[in-house]
Task: structure prediction
Amino acid sequence: MSLRVAVVDYGAGNLVSIEQALLAVGARPALARDGEALREADAVIVPGVGAAAPAMSRLARAGLVDPLLRWIASGRPYLGICLGLQLLFDASDEDGAETFGVLPGRTVRLVDAPTLPHIGWNQVVRRRDHPLFTGIAQGADLYFVHSYAGVPEGTDAERMVLAETDHGARFASVIERGNVLGVQFHPERSAGDGLRLLANFARWATALSAGMGAQWAPVGAGGTGGSD
Amino acid sequence: MLRRRVIPCLDVADGRVVKGTRFVDLVDEGDPPELAARYAAEGADELVFLDITAAPERRGTLLEIVERTARRAFVPLTVGGGVRSVVEMRDVLRAGADKVSLNSAAVADPSLISRCASRFGRQAVVVAIDARRVAVAGGAGAAEPAWEVVVRGGRDATGLDAVEWAQRAADLGAGELLVTSIDRDGTRSGFETDLLRAITSRVSVPVIASGGASEPDDFVRAVRDGGADAVLAASIFHRRIHSIAEVKRVMAAAGLPVRAVA
Result:
């Protein structure tokens, strides 16, 4: 039974690549345009590029913000890609938008960057191991395209950073806290290692789901009750 | 460390890859997704499609090949040629492109750059600048090099200074500049590093060098002397004069950071 992945669609550009990359690693992607669409999913991916404020307002219009927050709070697998990672923090300096507030910290402009946006292949250097990196070399090149990155704060800040990347200064390129993963690069555009990482996410999410069994609360509009 | 990118460019007309010196003597070279997948497997860091389809009613063909390419090649794809509105850009991105390059339409209406950047983020907006060298008299009799922006494959002059236009495009929201020397394009006489340097010293966005690639050493010079972040070439890859791997080997040997070919 392959993993059903809801790919959150809020009108932000190219979703063909992420959809096809998930198919290539044996998952079953489905575009999610409202909260109801999360009911059928085993894992959620929030992709996206661009600025936080328009993304938050489009997510709000689609009625997706609360379902996503409940999804994360329920302990189910979440992967944020690029903007989908940045949205996890409290707020973004890019346009002052308040974001999910799931992880303490802010999204800030890259400091000391020789070029901005940071576009291209750069090394992802891990600080600790995680199933997400299985079969991927330390310092592997993955594809980035962004000007801002999340900076975790608080007592857990150090622990949240799974990997870093250097573009003038080091920034967090992979974030983890329990069921929440975020990557600042684009695995769906990062050739073989990107597909490996998505395959690892699918395996990790499957294991996480299996471990949680039937204790999940449904995530639909009612929040409790239901029988999915 | 950020890698310097090597980018093959595919000219596409009516859904087929064509070659020729820009718009004349076109020769059919095959299916774009097929060639794109081959280049991705050979180590291309990104791919660029330049759509030179003459008839607007054939644009649907482009969207179809963009989608087929996005489903086969898991590296970034930029599509340029004929995009004149936010809606057209949206359609190309939805089909599976990561970036769209704007050229004549941005020259005609620079606000297109800012409108596209605010809708899709500046990282999705590449402004392509075709530049031709013009001689202007400098102080004390010295002739300072200068370049003029040209459009329609070099047929129409615009009166815009290429370096000033590059600066303005970046200020308006271009996330990247694709700078082509029309004098060198198709000549295989090397990139115009003076032009590249004049622009890279003025803007902080990444610059892709284009026009004139012949030898792997030209790629080294575009980066080292021109300050380019990425280097684009067409014919030397299509005609298999040099492979992407060979170019990257020479760049690496010159001390430039490149992504290893798997």
Observations:
- Confidence is low (pLDDT under 50) at residues 214-228 of chain A.
- Chain A is about 25% helix and 30% strand.
- The first strand of chain A starts at residue 4 and ends at 8.
